[in-house]
Amino acid sequence: MKHAAISLALALAMTGANAETNDGLRSELQPLQFLIGACWAGQFPDGARTDVHCYESVFEGMHLRDRHAVTGGATTYRGETVYSWSGDRQTIAYVYWNSYGGVSTGTATPDSGKIAFPDESYTGPNGATITISSSWENITADGYDSISVETGPDGTRKERKVRYRKLPFAGDPLDAL
Predict the structure, then answer these.
(1) Which of 54, 77, 107, 139 could form a disulfide with 39 if both were Cys (CB 3.0 to 4.6 A apart)?
(2) Residue 113 — pLDDT band, cuts 50, 70, 90?
(3) Cα angle vertex 161, ends 2, 104, to 5°?
(4) Rounded distance between C-alpha atoms, residue 71 and residue 52, angstroms
(5) Of 159, 118, 152, nearest to 135 (Cα)?
């Protein structure tokens, strides 16, 4: 219950993304347009942790920036992703890095109302690599489901589904963490 109260307080305190964003994205990034200018919160299946993502257009819509924080654990975990159009691969590409020192790259493919993120290779600061495949489904103006499967170096698989909901907008909630 303590974590739920903290998560609710955090969600209420976290009321939006950077107000100085450009609302438009280049045409190739349009499938991600619904994210712009908002923060989205989802509770992990364990009920203890909450993940908040805030999205903004950067460089006049040439890229999309996603900053996120996961609260409810021993420490706050943070990450940042920049989505861009990869002209040489003709797809949406991204680079992700986090507060643990890990980095990954991947691609995003919009298809039939979903956005697929096929096998991304994440390398942690210790050099261990896991493969992550995910998709965003049931996308509406105020929510979406993120379904991910992580496969560890030993072949173990973990699946997680998180429902993200749009938070009220008024300031930058990630600055409060």
Answers:
(1) 54
(2) confident
(3) 100
(4) 8
(5) 118
